[in-house]
Amino acid sequence: DNAEHMYFFSELALTLNEAEERVAPTDSRLRPDQRLMESGRWDEANVEKQRVEEKQRAVRRRREAEAVEALEEGKDYEGYIPLWFERKVDSVTGELMCVYKGGYWEAKDKQDWSMCPDIF
């Protein structure tokens, strides 16, 4: 019903980006530029998007510099380690996949997001 007014998205698709309380501060639904865009504040959203992306680039550059420094010093460098997932090889297909390793729901129950990086 009313699909022509909803860009022909299904009801499910329309609800996927709805804000939810008590989620990790890294949840993509909390992107400040996205929230501004959804409220029709296009110019502010664009400025915010540029800020968030530059912040991400700075983190990437820092990690790359740390990796080079570790290599020069003969040290191991782990790099970025996802909080909630780990990379594993699928035993059937041999493809690399990400598997939930736990912790998110426990952190959500406790509302303890101290381990989350400040990505926005």
List the keywords.
2 domains, 42% helix, mainly alpha, two-stranded antiparallel ribbon, 120 residues
Give the biggest sheet. Answer: 2 strands, antiparallel
**How many individual domains?**
2
Distance between the termini: 36 Å
- Spans of 5+ residues with little confidence (pLDDT < 50)? none
Helix fraction, binned, reads 40-55%
The pLDDT mean sits at: 92
> How many beta-strand runs?
2
Q: What proportion strand?
A: 5-15%
Overall geometry comes to: extended
- The secondary structure category is mainly alpha
Instruction: Give the ordered list of helices and strands.
Output: HHHEEH
Question: What spatial order of strands do you see in the largest sheet?
Answer: 1-2
Number of continuous helical runs: 4
**Cα gyration radius (Å):** 19 Å
